[in-house]
Design brief:
Elements (H helix, E strand, L loop, with lengths): L3 E6 L4 E7 L5 E8 L1 H4 L7 H23 L6 E9 L3 H18 L3 E5 H7 L12 E6 L4 E8 L2 E7 L5 H11 L7 H9 L21 H13 L5 H26 L4 E5 L6 H14 L2 E3 L11 H12 L17
Parallel strand pairs: 1-4, 4-5, 6-9, 9-10
Antiparallel strand pairs: 1-2, 2-3, 6-7, 7-8
The structure holds 5'-O-[(R)-(carboxyoxy)(hydroxy)phosphoryl]adenosine (KG4) and zinc ion.
The site of 5'-O-[(R)-(carboxyoxy)(hydroxy)phosphoryl]adenosine has 19 residues, from helix 5 and helix 6.
Organism: Caulobacter ginsengisoli
Family: Belongs to the KAE1 / TsaD family.
Subcellular location: Cytoplasm
Amino acid sequence: SGRLILGIESSCDDTAAALVTESGEVLASVIAAQEEVHNAFGGVYPEFASRAHVVSVIPTIEKVMADAGATPADLAAIGVTRGPGLIGSLLVGLNTAAGLGVGWNVPVIGVNHLRGHLRSADLEQARVKYPAIILLVSGGHSILARMTGPGEIAMLGTTRDDSVGEAFDKVGRMLGLPFPAGPAMDRLAAQGQPLFKFPRPMINEGLEFSFSGLKSSVARHMEKHPDARLEDVAASFVAACLDVLEAKCRLALTEHPSTALVVVGGVSASPPLRARMAAMCEGLGVELCLPPLRWSTDNAAMIALAAWDYLRAGLYPPAVPQVRLPITQ
Ligand code: KG4
Ligand code: ZN
């Protein structure tokens, strides 16, 4: 069988394809983003996302195959995101993968998107040391977990309401930033001072998160103080998020001593978050494992690398959509 897995990702608003070897070398990666499609709505508009996937999925796969000079004979499998995600978006990638699998006579593996993020820190180079505490912070999820080996995952905590990325995007919208707001929020915050003491929800209460109260306080603050500098509001909001994330990771590492801290998901692209985690890990003598920046946000290379884990274990989860899917499955 071939030496590459073709990864396909379409769970949200990016259509992505990548070709990855078993050791995590990325031969080619193509991402067709839909920012222009959703910008006017300040969030992902599900029906438009599905339609944009329909238009871009085949060209994206053709391009990645051409970029790597690959043929179907080079493929050991196709790994495609089966969930969690938007039903219409998932169906486009899954049906495309199913068709290609039949046509090319290649097995199709339904991959958990969250497992993909976990593997992103091992792309290009193996970085993750076990046992590890995992902080997964994306648009859809805020998860603390512990891994004792690849695929051996125990949940420690998740969010009661909004994810961190969601809070970034919703507060970003209040500040007039384009969607997704993460990168623009970081740039704005860098020009301000954390003058406003926003709440740090549940900071001393275990390993669960809550971010919707923080978002509401920012909204109330902006109503009461319409002349506050947006840079300072952004800096104060980011400071509150970072304080919470640092406190939770610190507690997880204290309660479950581990060799490494792995921070993945779209928000792990944030420079201030990376700096904060690096300083904390240095103090604790824990190794910090981060994906290269381009693999922090959604991509198909991480899906392909996760698919290698399934293939090695002889697992072939069916390529059917699972809108909700825990990280442990
Ligand atoms: O992992 P991801 O690409 O998609 C999901 O699986 O949800 O994460 C997207 C999230 C968005 O909320 C976006 O605002 C945030 O990641 N994000 C960032 C940065 N880049 C993306 N947040 C903070 N700083 C960034 N540089
Ligand atoms: Zn994601």
